[in-house]
Design brief:
This protein is mainly α and 469 residues long. 73% of the residues lie in helices and 2% in strands. It contains 18 helices and 2 strands. It has helices at residues 3-20, 25-50, 72-94, 101-117, 121-140, 145-176, 182-187, 191-207, 217-223, 226-251, 256-279, 283-303, 314-342, 359-372, 378-393, 396-420, 438-453, 458-464, and strands spanning 53-56, 67-70.
């Protein structure tokens, strides 16, 4: 069995094993996550050395068969999932993870890998369904009334999005007679085809929690357990954003109407999410609204990219997805540790006199630097690519909106950082630092990764420059 098939099957098999063997769930899940990372690294090496890797399942070629394709973009997404997954698994394995976490996380990992690699629209729909159900379970794991209500809203929104995607795929098949990615170009050539593509895009907008259809997401991400919130915000929403980007790439100039809509919605989400983050009173809610703003920025980057066969501006969106995943996972893990140490997550009470800043606070601060986009972080590289491309394209109005969003993100994140890292006479002489926990290692590792990735951005950029399959 090849690596490209194994990287999808391994997590799904591990999901079954962790459900069947609860006492060994942490060991099996952690081992599967580590093996997944090795497979992702090997696939990335193969892509760099020989270009895209393709496998037709059962030797049935498209349009009848299902093919897995690992090109540069898929390789970056697989690496992103593997890195974040390793850190979250480290934190979960070291503590008393709630029953059901490991099967749900393994199902999420397998669904994401299948989503990134599949070149068949219906197979992508199946992966989305697995991903959505697992994400609802992760949201509900906390067991609180707020978490259960948020999970129900998540399920409702997910079902609406799935229905729209399925209707679009069915209409696509009626127009083109195929459901592989080659159908996307054909869909742009007729009015009915464009309606099918619009239905698929609308479903993805719901699943990505893009403004103004983000109503379910802040509560879901802020109510879930820290490890689950990290996975939901850093990885799960990227599935829909990845597919929107993939549709834009496959459709080329014919998807200009889709990109224009994404740019407008993305700008609205970036500003609306930042405004609500400025007003948030709880730390987890601030980080959740920040995700709305960052999703808006990524959608804006996809929208202004133009024809991918004429410009490489779309690579900025992929780099922003990567940097956001590392920084946001670090933030949610850090927030979990901060709330554990303080006993609450109220922003107004972060600077307690008897407690000095600990590693979780420093991890949050580093992740905040990356989200704002300061050098030399990965967030800076993504924004630099985006703004540089917009200068060449003459998109000054988009640059102004991005800079406004950046200023707002600096404002709401400084509300936390200024309190977390504040020194001076208000700190008691006898104040202690919180003891180290494994969650601190995971959060600091991810935040440091977001920082160092800005210095080693050549690797993901080289992957993204690999020709499409």
């Amino acid at each position: 069995m090849s690596d490209i098939s194994l990287i999808v099957l391994l997590p799904l098999l591990a999901a079954v094993l962790t459900a069947a063997l609860p006492p060994q769930a942490a060991a099996v899940g952690a081992l599967a996550t580590a093996l997944n990372a090795l497979l992702a690294a090997n696939l990335g090496r193969q892509i760099l050395q020989g270009g895209p890797v393709t496998e037709a399942i059962g030797d049935w070629a498209a349009p009848l068969g299902i093919a897995f394709v690992a090109d540069g973009l898929a390789g970056v997404m697989l690496a992103m999932t593997a890195i974040v997954g390793l850190a979250v698994s480290l934190q979960a394995a070291a503590g008393p993870a709630r029953a059901g976490f490991w099967p749900l996380w393994m199902a999420t990992l397998g669904a994401l890998n299948g989503l990134f690699l599949s070149s068949d629209l219906f197979n992508i729909y199946v992966a989305f369904e697995i991903l959505g159900l697992a994400a609802v379970g992760l949201t509900a794991l906390a067991g609180t009334r707020a978490a259960l209500r948020a999970a129900f809203d998540y399920l409702t929104a997910g079902l609406v999005g799935s229905l729209l995607v399925l209707l679009g795929i069915a209409l696509s098949y009626s127009v083109t007679g195929r459901v592989d990615m080659e159908a996307v170009v054909l869909l742009t050539q007729s009015d009915t085809g464009r309606i099918a593509l619009a239905l698929i895009a609308a479903g993805l907008v719901v699943k990505a929690a893009l403004f103004p259809l983000h109503f379910w997401m802040p509560a879901a991400h802020s109510s879930a357990a820290p490890a689950a919130s990290a996975l939901l915000s850093a990885l799960v929403v990227k599935g829909a954003l990845y597919l929107v980007l993939r549709l834009s790439l496959e459709g080329g100039a014919g998807t200009e109407f889709l990109r224009n809509t994404l740019a407008v919605l993305g700008a609205g989400g970036m500003l609306w999410g930042a405004w609500n983050a400025l007003r948030a009173e709880r730390l987890k809610l601030l980080v959740a609204h920040s995700t709305v703003a960052q999703i808006g920025l990524i959608a804006l980057a996809i929208g202004v990219a133009g024809n991918p066969f004429e410009t490489g501006l779309w690579q900025a969106a992929a780099l922003l997805m990567l940097s956001h995943a590392l920084a946001k996972a670090a933030m949610f893990l850090a927030v979990g540790r901060i709330a554990e140490a303080l006993g609450h997550d109220r922003i107004s009470g972060l600077n307690r006199e008897e407690l000095r800043p600990g590693p979780a606070e420093f991890a949050f601060a580093i992740a905040a630097i990356s989200l704002v986009g300061l050098p030399p972080t990965a967030g800076f590289i993504g924004k630099w690519f985006l703004i540089e491309g917009l200068i060449d394209e003459g998109g000054i109005h988009w640059i102004a909106l991005i800079l406004l969003g950046t200023a707002l993100s600096a404002a709401y994140l400084s509300r936390v950082v200024s309190r977390c890292l504040r020194g001076g006479p208000h700190v008691a002489a006898t104040a202690q630092r919180p003891p180290w926990r494994t969650g601190d290692v995971a959060a600091l590792g991810l935040a440091t990764g977001a920082l160092l990735l800005g210095l080693a951005a050549a690797l993901p950029i080289t992957l993204l420059e690999t020709p499409f399959a």
